[in-house]
Amino acid sequence: MEPRSLAGRRDDAGTRAGSGDTPPPAGFVAALESLASLRVRPEIVLERIPAPQRLAPFAHALGARVTELDGDEEVEVAAARFIVLHDPAGHEAWAGTTRCVGYVSASTDEHMVDDAMFSEVAWSWLTEALAGCGAAAHALGGTVTRTASTRFGDLAGPEHSVDVEIRASWTAEDTALDRHLDAWLEVLANAAGLPPPGVAMLGPSGPVADGN
């Protein structure tokens, strides 16, 4: 399958501009054009989602998911959100004008919950991805949360499961947000257990629906 891109899509379902007839600033427009140029690996479905309403004068949001086949059903194994907040006047807490906010949730190996270093490793996925993608950023912060569950009785699903959630935000230092999104999708891929791009997994794997 070929990588997919949001380039060429003209709807604004995932973008919220300022009130009234205020045109979006050039920096915000350039950032969105950069996002649209990113080619996404075929295992990840990327789509626009509603942007938050009151966090910044301008906002844009994307959702991503990774699925696999479980028998005849397609099951979601990981999901992510990537939100861009832009305030042309600047924001003191951000130390800049553009803030990236990311969220990843995934099911993972139940033995991971006992690994004391797992949270540090998961956080390094982001710091290393930002550096590797050349995404200039500062004021980075976030959390890694692991949750172990045991099902009893007739409740459907595996007896034991572990979920990981990664939440992060950082200030972008330029409008090349394709690099920032690329880094966050790399975090999603790691959380979902995907192999490096171009490397096939052994055993069956389910197709991913094309959301374009």
UniProtKB/TrEMBL annotation:
Record field: compositional bias (Basic and acidic residues): 1-14
Pfam families the UniProt entry points to: DUF3000
Region span, Disordered: 1-25
Protein's name in the database: DUF3000 domain-containing protein
